[in-house]
Amino acid sequence: MEFVGSSQLHHRLAYRVQVTIGHMQHLFETGPDAWKQLGGLSERQRRLVISAVNYHSLIQPGRELLYKIYMGEDWQYPRLTDTSTLNGSLTKGAGLKPVVEFKARSVSKPKTAFTPHYFDLHHQLVDWNERYVLLTPDDATDMTVKARNLSARLPMRNQIYNYCELHFPLLFDQVRELLRRKREKAGYQAIEPYHPDSTSDLFARGAAHHPGSSIEPAQPDSSAPKAVIIAMHWLQPGGAERWAMETVALARKAGLLPIVITNNDSHQPWIVSKDLDDALVINLTFPAQESIGDVPLLRALFEQYNIRGVMIHHNQWMYDRLWWIKRYYPHTFIVDSLHILEYHDRGGYPNQSVSRDPYIDLHHVISPQLQDWLVNHHGIAAKKVVMAPLVGLTADQMNPQYKDRVQQDVFHVAFVGRMTRQKRPEAFINVAKEMERRFPGRFRFIMHGSGDMDLEVRKLLAKYGLGHVVERRDVSQPVSATYDWADALLITSINEGITLTTIEAISRGMPVLSADVGSQSTLVPAQGLLPRESLGLVRQSVRSLLRMDDYEQDRRRLWTVELERLQEFSRKESADSFFTRMLGEWAQ
Amino acid sequence: MNAVDNRRNVAAVVVTFNRLEKLKKVLASLESQTFLPKALIIVDNASTDGTADYLHEYQDAFPLGGKVELRIVTLPKNVGGAGGFSAGMREGYRMGLDYVWIFDDDGYPEPDALEKLLGGYEQATKALSPDIPFACSLIKYIDGTISEMNNPVPTWDWGRLRAMGLRDLVLIDQASFVSVLIPRWVMEAYGLPYKEYFIWFDDAEYTLRISRDCPGVQVLDSVVVHDMGENKGVNFSMINEKNAWKFAYGIRNQGSYRLHHKSLAHYLLFCAQVWYAMRSGGVDKKLRRQMYCKMIEAIRFNPSIDYPQL
After folding, report:
1. Fewer CB atoms inside 10 A, N or C side of chain B?
2. A366 and A433: one domain?
3. CA distance B270 to chain A (A)
């Protein structure tokens, strides 16, 4: 979510999308009529089209293709680069009529040949000299996509899951906690290094259409523009994305062309950001057109730009192709930013980072927990790991004033974050339920944020009859108002690194109670920490909130300790400062 | 560099076996092409009629020396047309050429045959798809009529290119190896013809294989004359003592293709068709038995694809 009102904090913490009508880089030429037609689209849609045409222009250099642009439904995601853009299965084949149609000629000039022939496992992906791009309406969100899925009858397994979650949220979370512990334990076991498949191996085991022959890319001219690749998850709100967009700005400031590659389905709302003006943006959708042993997109980029480095912000596609970069362009500096230890998907991105360590030059982490995990548990060389927090506090923020109680007779508790499983909103609701049951009228709550659990949250609040106790605010409302209203911030997350909300709350003069997860203990002392498992968390929250309500000096003492810890933590070199220095070196 | 390469380096591949006089005419036709191939690959299938000596002399006095690279591939034994085309195409691939243009030793291309063929292929790729896997010529008999046994099989939408204003281009998915232009990427992606087929159905199987996802194209104004003995098509009712050896390969190869690349039903239907054609044609019972044995042989006969890059 966006922290729209945090004007006292460094601007990164208050990352806002500034809409622009500027042009992104484009690697194609087309007539004025095409631009006029594209002008009829929203800025987001127009930029998505440019992103798609850039991709096709890069891997089909010199070719003129007919682009047909279609408008999809709000339950779809844009299709920009995948194989449906070749065969039109989701557009032309689905009976849609193009809203824009134009020819564009690629002006990409790589040094080696690019084939127009691509194959999946069994068939050729026939190229009919046309590309079919699917856009989505501007009111499409993850929720509208999810709502479509929810409208279908769910399998019995999911129905049982949803029933348990709605009727026994805490007990059910105890079961999930057991699984979490198991996964957490697995996260500390050795991780197998990644070995890219060879072309012959793949063909031999029937995983390729035909035996490939590796393509040796060429080196760029020394006069080629200096650039940096920023590999992101997607262009939509998220902690890692805020930091990634910050690095885009830092790259440009250093005089490097930012090349932004995303690899996850999204409506990409942040593509309109001013930070992406003049950047080269590629939003990959899959399955992509690649040959075994060759990465056409990267080959096209590396042959035309002096790519000094790659910064990875949760991008699996890039993790899987680092071997290629290091094989052919070994001097490219690879930096990976990790935010949080993950337990799903066999350890998520930290796992991938460890397994690709031979291709990574620097692991940037934002919390001591991750540093410890990488170095002490997975044997990553300490000199390759840098802990640089996403904190850049001004003098005022380093010495904030304690915020007195807003109302003496009612204690206000805030939840600020996305409504997702990771943030565990149901635990927060259960704290509210318990407080209201035991002390009616003494505590009031705000849940600020939205996400894919909005529906579950709504149902749970209705079921408990907490409409008058818990106020909901979405991202259109300034978060600063919520902080102004609150006497304490309660963080119920299942997993975190160090939350920006913790830093924000402390900087605004209020204490934080937090589940003892991730590196939260770096800022929150023992008296403010809560057990991770839901039942314990609710019990302890009740005790701690009551204590703070009864004893103002304890509320103040908790905040004072937290502030001291934040001040100590902020003395470390910030990620902003570290990356500014590093990008400056790359630009030379 | 363009994704669709403008390179036009062609290797003409001629496979010959004991037809020296016809071969000489083929070579003369090639020498008079308005667009010369970059290389000429002559595959001698262990001929015993003095072809080897002639080729030796031809090489010494090659009239296109300096313009066209001549490569003579002498095979240690006769491996049939299929083996010869496989070897010649492999050689063209090894030489790094962009296309192979293949034909038998009794196909005489008219002077502008290659120029028109290449031009037609390029028009088709530009208009329709760079993935068009092959182009073939219009094959005529020596008397100027159409060659009965070399007619390609058009696709259901054969007139698509014509509707786009390209009047001499027809979409096809099956052709015989008399003037077929095959791009290098096709050999890499789909391999070479099955050399194990020896003769018969190797061309049909190969062109069907490479046009499975995107059709090939026949260029009607590229003409090659096929100097065969008699201008008539063939079917299984024509089996006799003289031609049975050839039909035997045909039945084994086609049976194998139907069973291993289509389905059991296709195979059984094919067997029924052969049975019916032989019966209605009054084919000798001994020969019929021989052909039934070939149908059975087809069950175990399933060669694997050779890739030139391996």
Report:
1. C
2. no
3. 26
Domain B10-226 has CATH 3.90.550.60: yes
CB-based contact B131 A115, cutoff 8 Å: no
Q: Are A370 and A402 in a shared domain?
A: no
Please write the tens of the pLDDT for every residue from A478-518.
999 999 999 999 999 998 888 889 999 999 999 999 999 99
Domain shared by A297 and A373, yes or no: yes
Query: Closest residue of A to B187, CA-based?
Result: A210
Secondary structure element (H or E) that encloses residue A297, with its range: helix A296-304
DSSP E strands in A349-495: the ranges are 362-365, 385-387, 411-416, 443-448, 470-473, 488-491
CB contact under 8 A, B1 and A61: yes
Q: How far is B129 from chain A (nearest CA, A)?
A: 5
Average confidence score pLDDT of chain A: 91
User: Across the interface, do A59 and B212 touch by the CB < 8 Å criterion?
Assistant: no
Same domain membership, residue A482 and residue A352: no
Q: Return the number of CB contacts < 8 Å for A and B.
A: 65
Q: What tokens appear for A186 in the block? A: 């697995």
B131 and A63 within 8 Å at the Cβ level: the answer is no
Nearest-CA distance from B296 to chain A in Å? 28
Inspect the interface and report whether the beta carbons of B131 and A113 lie closer than 8 Å. no
pLDDT at A154 over 90: no
Give the residue among A195, A249, A256, A200 at the shortest CA–CA distance from A224.
Answer: A256
Q: Which long-range contacts (CB under 8 A, 24 or more apart) does A314-317 make?
A: A314/A232, A314/A233, A314/A240, A314/A339, A314/A349, A315/A231, A315/A232, A315/A233, A315/A261, A315/A262, A315/A263, A316/A263, A316/A349, A316/A352, A317/A231, A317/A261, A317/A263, A317/A284
pTM, 2 dp = 0.88
Strands A28-29 and A100-106: antiparallel
User: How confident is the model at residue A396, as a pLDDT?
Assistant: 66
Lowest mean pLDDT among A16-30, A40-54, A219-233, B56-70: A16-30
- Under a CB-based contact definition with an 8 Å cutoff, are residues B296 and B272 in contact? no
Residue A115 lies in a domain: no
Residue B117 C-alpha, separation from nearest chain A C-alpha, in angstroms: 21
pLDDT of residue A5: 33
For residue A123, the model assigns a pLDDT of 92
Question: Which of A59, A60, A124 lies closest to B131 in CB terms?
Answer: A124
Residues A350 and A498 in one domain: no
A59 touches chain B (CB under 8 A): yes
Supply the range of the domain harboring residue A469.
397-570
Distance CA(B186)–CA(A4), nearest Å, equals 56
ipTM, interface predicted TM-score of the complex: 0.90
Q: How confident is the model at residue A98 (pLDDT cuts 50, 70, 90)?
A: very high
The domain limits of chain B are: 10-226, 236-300
| Contact present, A565 and A522 (Cβ < 8 Å) | yes
Q: Would you call A112 and B189 a contact, using CB atoms and an 8 Å cutoff?
A: no
- A111 touches B at CB < 8 Å: yes
Residues A368-403 have pLDDT tens digits of 999 999 999 999 999 999 999 887 666 667 789 999
